[in-house]
Amino acid sequence: MNSGKIIIPALTPFRNQQIDPEAVEVMTEYAKKNRFDGLFAGSSTGGVAALSYKKHKEVLKIYMDKISGDVTPLAGISRNDLDETTSLGREAVDFGYKTIVLINPYYHNYSDKTFLSYFGSVLENVDADFYLYNNPGLTGKNLKPEVVSMLHDKYSNVKGVKESSGDLDTFSKFLAIKGLEVFQGKDTLLHDSMKMGATGGICSSANFSLNTLKIAKGTPDAGESAAKIKELMKIVSAYENPVIHNYLFRKYIIGETPSGYMRRPYSDLDSVPEDNIKSLL
């Protein structure tokens, strides 16, 4: 199994209803210290679908200001409104981002033709490299490999895809697109995906665990790490996302007793099986 990349889909830490710059700094230092390949601000794990345009922009700016070292910054700019997405993409480029992550619009029953129009408009009007993002569990619609292939053929700035359908057959179809970087978004499938030839992973557990990093890098204990990730994600999936990710980051990376760390309408967790989780990190 070849060594691959791991990008953290960064959570958005809050304190007293405001973005917490000290916690963002801890996250960026954690990424740098452990040699993660990238840090993706404005991710779904970051809860940006629940943020206003202004807050979304603030997330991108504060992460860019804090990221240092060899960690590549990536900006998630996806808004359901095309004009807002394009505008935020240009803002991200002005902040210094060179790589953008873009998911398909959601809620409505969009066609492949509309996806091509939506993505094409952003790709033509934002001067950056792009990773397209397929997550039908969140958007309600698959971004098909053939659609990504057409965009990749037409636009030279389409460099890769984050594939989070949870289907390895779909993943293999993305891998067949020549010259496309393909990242696994499902933590539990990363080990199998690396064996298939994945570029790496963009996995939410990377916010508080080094196991996905070990899997992608092909360390001697990668198999053991994969087993731990499967057990860990069983526990994590029982809780509200992104609340559980913020809790575990606060508890095990910052080292505090988590309290008052979520922004409305979310609230702090009542309880977590600490002993089980700690042994799996």
Short description:
By secondary structure, the chain is an alpha/beta fold.
Structure description:
It is a single chain. 44% of the residues lie in helices and 15% in strands. The protein has 281 residues and is of the alpha/beta class. The protein has a single domain (5-278), classed as Aldolase class I (TIM Barrel). Strands 1-4-5-6-7-8-9-10 form an eight-stranded parallel barrel, surrounded by six helices. It has a two-stranded antiparallel ribbon with strand order 2-3. β6, α4 (112-125) and β7 form a beta-alpha-beta unit. α2 (53-66) runs parallel beside α3, α3 (82-95) runs parallel beside α4 and α9 runs antiparallel to α10. The radius of gyration is 18 Å and the shape is globular.
Helix and strand arrangement:
Layout: E1 5-9, E2 14-15, E3 18-19, H1 21-33, E4 38-41, H2 53-66, E5 72-76, H3 82-95, E6 99-103, H4 112-125, E7 129-134, H5 136-139, H6 145-154, E8 158-163, H7 168-175, E9 181-184, H8 190-196, E10 200-202, H9 211-217, H10 222-236, H11 243-254, H12 274-278
Parallel strand pairs: 1-4, 1-10, 4-5, 5-6, 6-7, 7-8, 8-9, 9-10
Antiparallel strand pairs: 2-3
